[in-house]
Design a protein that fits this description.
Calcium-transporting ATPase, cytoplasmic domain N
């Protein structure tokens, strides 16, 4: 942001990284298995059963010596009462209701089969930057190295950094806004390209600089607290006032407050939470420990992300991947359920099965809950439709004839309609 950069194009067209990602996505899509719709298959088999049962009913009554009209009426009643409306509608009605609910909650379903698989997810893998974190620097530690208090260190640093547009500077200023601290006036502000900034506050020269600058000027001094935050992979800047080192500020990518709640809820559901990042192992370890993750993959190159998902799948886990970038696209496709954060790239969204409109990882839990509730309603409707037909076929065929119970085709039509209404009402009771 404070200098220039020269770029040399080495690959174009099909050789570019984006086109390689597109190819990976295409390959993963082609290898994904497709399952047939259970309700359609059940309705197909019920149709065959009805035709067989109807023909058997006609033949049986004729064999028993009943008039053809009587036998025909029994067959028609069987055909009407077991018309597979309820069974055929058992799943589509629930799908319609769940799609409406998900849209209201900011969850867009692109792949219905994958959404239904979400109920069985055992591991959710989150991309770090932009998903678990905000991609913005946040002050995590303020370390006094002289007599100055933490608040004064922050006040001096933020006053100077308020004149800079650097992401680190913005993170420090944001901390002051949170604490509602009034800033000092700054004179003669000047950026030190690649190393920090300087200015005059309260008549003294103040610098906010990198570790490298301190070492160059011979101001560096060993401190266990500073070494600890550096070991965690955090970015550390130092405050120098009047040529004297007085404090340090450690910054890290800001973890979304929602992320902690999301991980906790996943654990409550018996689901493991992992993280996938290209960042170094120290940063990954710190974020993983902060969130209580079950595991993480660090220093993963973009094209290796889908391989990490595959490794988990080979261990027998059903995996959901949550990401927002171009680099996440192959991994989203490789996962059993690909979930894209709505503010992500078009490539990530196109590769996902489910899209979260809001940048809120807690919506992953909502999606899984909805998938489970949807499946539960489907099972209830299928069980009702199947149970109804198990009872209706013999009743319509006239098995209770000797007890004086005989259904007409009109009564059969009424019962068939009633079963469909029950399935529809049950679907409407779907809630999350």
């Amino acid at each position: 942001m404070e200098g220039s950069i020269k770029v040399r194009i080495e690959k174009t067209g099909k050789e570019t990284y984006l086109m390689q990602v597109v190819e990976l996505v295409k390959q993963a899509q082609e290898t994904r298995s497709r399952t047939q719709d259970l309700a359609n298959r059940a309705a197909f088999w019920l149709t065959l059963i009805v035709i067989t049962a109807g023909s058997a009913t006609l033949g049986t009554w004729l064999y028993l010596g009943k008039p053809f009209v009587f036998a025909l009426e029994r067959m028609v009643t069987v055909m009407v009462i077991t018309c597979p409306h309820a069974l055929g509608l058992a799943v589509p009605l629930v799908v319609s209701v769940s799609t409406s609910i998900s849209a209201r909650k900011g969850i867009l379903i692109r792949n219905r089969e994958a959404f239904e698989r979400a109920k069985d997810v055992q591991v959710v893998v989150f991309d770090k930057t932009g998903t678990l974190t905000e991609g913005k620097f946040e002050v995590t530690d303020i370390i006094p190295l002289d007599e100055l208090s933490e608040e004064e260190i922050l006040k001096y640093a933020a006053a100077l950094e308020s004149y800079s547009e650097h992401p680190i500077a913005q993170g420090i200023v944001e901390k002051v806004k949170e604490k509602k601290i009034e800033l000092y006036d700054v004179k003669d502000f000047k950026a030190i390209p690649g190393k920090g900034a300087q200015g005059v506050i309260n008549g003294r020269e103040v610098l906010i600089v990198s570790p490298q600058f301190l070492k160059e000027k011979g101001l560096w001094k060993e401190d266990e607290r500073v070494n600890n935050v550096l070991e965690q992979g955090k970015t550390v800047v130092f405050l120098v006032i009047g040529g004297k080192l007085v404090g340090a500020l450690a910054l890290a990518d800001k973890i979304r407050p929602e992320s902690r709640e999301a991980v906790k809820k996943l654990h409550g559901m018996g689901i493991k939470a992992y993280m996938l990042t290209g960042d170094n192992a120290k940063v990954a370890k710190w974020v993983a420990e902060e969130l209580g993750l079950d595991g993480y993959f660090a220093e993963v190159l973009p094209h290796q992300k889908s391989k990490k998902i595959k490794e988990l799948q080979e261990k027998g886990f059903i995996v959901a991947m949550v990401g927002d970038g171009i680099n996440d696209a192959p991994a989203l496709i490789q996962a059993d359920v690909g979930i894209a954060i709505g503010a992500g790239t078009d490539v990530a969204i196109e590769s996902a099965d489910i899209i979260l409109v809001k940048n809120d990882p807690r919506d992953v839990i909502t999606a899984i809950h909805l998938a489970r509730a949807t499946y539960g309603k489907m099972v209830q409707n299928l069980a009702w439709a199947t149970g109804y037909n198990t009872f209706a076929i013999p009743l319509a065929a006239g098995t209770l004839y000797k007890y004086g119970i005989l259904l007409s085709p009109a009564i059969g039509a009424l019962l068939m309609s009633l079963s469909t209404v029950i399935v529809a009402i049950n679907a409407k009771f779907l809630k999350v």
